[in-house]
Design goal:
Elements (H helix, E strand, L loop, with lengths): L4 H11 L10 E3 L2 E4 L2 E5 L12 H9 L17 H14 L3 E5 L2 H12 L6 E5 L4 H9 L3 E5 L4 H9 L5 E6 L11 H10 L3 E5 L27 E5 L9 E5 L1 H10 L1 H4 L6 H16 L1 H20 L11 E7 L1 H13 L2 E2 L1 E3 L9 E6 L6 H18 L5
Parallel strand pairs: 3-12, 5-6, 5-7, 7-8, 8-9
Antiparallel strand pairs: 1-2, 2-3, 4-10, 9-10, 11-14, 13-14
Helix pairs in contact: 3-10, 4-5, 11-13
The structure holds 4'-deoxy-4'-aminopyridoxal-5'-phosphate (PMP).
Length: 389
């Protein structure tokens, strides 16, 4: 029997227009197929088009490896393909050591929970960090406090207010706003206050840098300035799973203490090898990043032309903030009617009254698709009288 309370909790979600349902969809090229219909896809995280790349798909059939890893990594689930992937990542990003996790959520939450075990220590998180970081912080034994989004003065105040060890936790690119953390200033604050830094670059890796090294390439920071670096393969790399990079000592510690690593079956060796191949491809194929960058610039130009409020993001994530849940859902549904697949993002994923259409751009979009989507958005907003613009 399930607890009686869940009925009530689900009813509350319905009443607040925050109920969520899954939809079966199949992305291919710049489209997504839903119920036999094709929509232009402005909703996924496949920023470089690698998840739907037909040449890469062919390679899946050719990889001669076991389909399953047969165990957790400390039993017999750590295969040569996992080791090769970790080595590729160290070579790519310049860190001393690397460890794979089955997902970014597990990586972030286990790292914080199992590393920050001392009640005298403090985790200092950006307010808009991803749920996996916020949950990991809450579950950790250390104190968990937050600073105002990207507000370095507030971060410093927070750091001054605590003695003993503190770990600053932030993101390269914020998942719902698409803006950057001011990494150089974060590193300066870390140095000034003898703190550690954890950076989740889920949305920066692959997208920025000459070989897709991520958000650090936009700053003066080096890998050695970041104590804990995490990212997922589920965005620009186009597969799934995740990794953490840092010193040899950090990785040895996690191998011995991170329960989400120790007690979970390693992902498939085929997936490890395909992820390694995808990383090698994205390092070499700068044209994918150039195309994405060109699409971001084009998107922002049309946004300005249509007098939309500018988003403050120069990443692949471009939010159009609507406000209340009902209007956000209505706008998404209207866009779908016009052939554009966009997602209504509502609280608790974003702050209260900050519901939004989270548009994601990829290297697969054409200018024509972007222009048509923004004109449809503008027309829908005006007709429905729901946008802030
Ligand atoms: N961190 C950030 C910033 C994310 O956006 C996400 C994905 N939503 C994750 C971590 C979790 O990664 P994964 O999807 O691999 O669990």
């Amino acid at each position: 029997m399930l607890p009686e309370s869940i009925k009530q909790l689900l009813a509350e979600k319905q009443a607040k227009d925050s109920y969520r349902s899954r939809i079966v969809c199949r992305p291919h090229d710049s489209y997504v197929e839903v119920d036999g219909k094709h929509y232009v896809n402005f909703s996924g995280n496949d920023y470089l088009g690698l998840a739907v790349d037909t040449k890469l798909q062919q390679r899946w059939g050719e990889v001669q490896l076991n389909s399953g890893s047969t165990g957790s990594p400390l039993i017999n689930g750590y295969h040569p393909s996992h080791q090769a992937l970790e080595e590729t990542i160290c070579d790519w990003l310049g860190f001393e050591s690397c460890l794979l996790f089955t997902s970014g959520f597990t990586a972030n939450s286990s790292i914080l929970k199992n590393l920050m075990t001392n009640k005298q220590h403090t985790i200092v998180q950006d307010k808009l960090n991803h749920a996996s970081l916020l949950d990991g912080g809450k579950e950790a034994n250390a104190k968990n406090i937050r600073f105002q989004h990207n507000n370095i003065a507030h971060l410093k105040k927070r750091l001054e207010s605590v003695d003993n060890y503190k770990l600053i936790v932030t993101e390269g690119i914020f998942s719902m706003d698409g803006d950057h953390a001011p990494i150089d200033e974060v590193i300066a604050a870390k140095r000034q206050h003898d703190a550690g830094v954890m950076l989740d670059d889920a949305h920066g890796v692959g997208v920025f840098g000459k070989q897709g090294e991520g958000s650090l390439s936009l700053s003066n920071a080096k890998a050695a300035d970041i104590d804990i670096f995490t990212a997922t393969f589920g965005k620009a790399v186009g597969t799934s799973g995740a990794f953490v990079c840092g010193s040899q000592q950090l990785i040895e510690y996690l191998v011995n203490h991170a329960r989400g690593y120790i007690y979970s079956t390693s992902f498939s060796p085929v997936l490890a090898e395909m992820t390694r191949i995808a990383i090698e491809k994205l390092r070499l194929e700068q044209w994918r990043r150039d195309k994405l960058r060109d699409n971001i610039t084009y998107f922002k130009n049309i946004l300005a032309e249509l007098s939309f409020e500018m988003t403050g993001s120069d990443s692949a994530i471009q939010p159009i903030v609507v406000g209340d849940n009902k209007s956000t859902l209505l706008l998404a549904s209207e866009m779908r009617k016009q052939g554009f697949w966009v997602t209504a993002i509502r609280p608790p994923t974003v702050p209260a009254h900050a519901g939004r259409i989270r548009i994601t751009l990829t290297s697969l979009h054409s200018h024509q698709q972007i222009k048509a989507m923004l004109f449809a958005l503008k027309e829908s907003c005006e007709r429905l009288k729901i946008c802030q613009n």
